[in-house]
Design goal:
This is Glutamyl-Q tRNA(Asp) ligase. Belongs to the class-I aminoacyl-tRNA synthetase family. GO terms for molecular function: ATP binding; glutamate-tRNA ligase activity. The protein is an alpha/beta fold. The protein has 10 helices and 12 strands. It is 35% helix and 16% strand. The protein is globular and about 60 Å long.
Length: 292
């Protein structure tokens, strides 16, 4: 039992958390905050924090970034159990999960390009991307087979209407602002994402599918992530139900912003931890700056 500010929270398992960066660039202060938040949460809960490398994007993931991630975390004073899970080594597990969804008759091939979707979409998803208009949902089977046989670029989507008809209302538990607070129940709204992508040609998984499968495989009890990822929890809770997987607790932490109020990101060239280290920052400087 844990005494919390909101009362008594019963814990009958070892809490397991994870930090799961992608090795497609160097870590920055936003990553450092997320990692420190996760390790602090694991300590408060009397649990353990795992490192997972999310490298399903084979083209962009590089061994040197993988090594740099581990060096940066060790520099911050964080450690984790070995071996480290790498998603690039788990494609068969994702394919197995996708096939389980196919057996439910809720997956279909889609041949639309991003330009096609943008031209036909009249709404946006929670991330602001064009919402898929369902163009290929009712594509005749013989036409789909012909296009697959000739090697057309394809992605596989979840039929949201069929899926949500199977689930009814879905809920999950959010803990915050600290991981010792009493959980609050939230209702998932996966329908606002439309028919999202499960797999693409050449990559037998998507972020959503792989993260759900891996959280279950690693027995993750608490998922800590930035507030910008809160909406995607709708999809994860849906997939957990459909695949008969446990739903962990979720905790959403604040984002680290730049001087213009934008979230730090690799694509915007936010200063890396390595560059800060070279400029004379110490691990304690990082922790103090981020409030740890």
């Amino acid at each position: 039992m844990l005494e919390t500010p909101g009362g008594i929270l019963a814990v009958s398992f070892q809490p397991i958390l994870r930090f799961a960066p992608s090795p497609n660039g160097p870590l920055h202060l936003g990553h450092a905050y997320s990692a420190l938040f996760t390790w602090q949460a694991a300590t408060l809960l009397g649990g353990v924090a795992l490192l997972r490398i999310e490298d399903i994007d084979i083209d962009r993931s590089k061994p040197e970034f993988d090594a740099a991630i581990q060096a940066d975390l060790a520099w911050l004073g964080l450690d984790w159990p070995e071996p480290v899970m790498r998603q690039s080594q788990r494609f068969p597990a994702y394919e197995q999960a996708a096939n389980a969804l196919r057996r439910l008759d809720i997956v279909y091939p889609c041949f639309c390009s991003r330009a096609d979707i943008a031209a036909r979409s009249s709404a946006g998803d929670p991330d602001g991307a064009p919402l898929y208009p369902g163009t290929c949902r009712h594509l005749p089977a013989d036409e789909a087979e012909t296009r697959l046989a000739r090697g057309d670029a394809v992605q596989y989507r979840l039929d949201m209407g069929k899926a949500t008809a199977m689930t009814g209302s879905l809920t999950y538990s959010v803990i915050g602002p600290t991981v010792l607070d009493r959980p609050q129940i939230r209702y998932a709204r996966p329908e606002r994402w439309g028919d999202f992508v499960l797999q693409r040609k050449g990559t037998p998984t998507s972020y959503h599918l792989s993260v759900v499968v891996d959280d279950a495989a690693q027995h993750i009890t608490h998922v800590t992530r930035g507030r910008d990822m809160e909406a995607s929890t709708d999809i994860h809770v849906l997939l957990q139900f459909l695949l008969n997987l446990d739903t962990p607790y979720y905790s959403f932490h604040r984002l680290i912003l730049d001087a213009e109020g934008r979230k730090l990101s690799k694509s915007k060239g936010s200063p890396s931890l390595a560059s800060l280290r070279d400029a004379g920052w110490t691990p304690q400087d990082v922790r103090t700056y981020l409030g740890f």
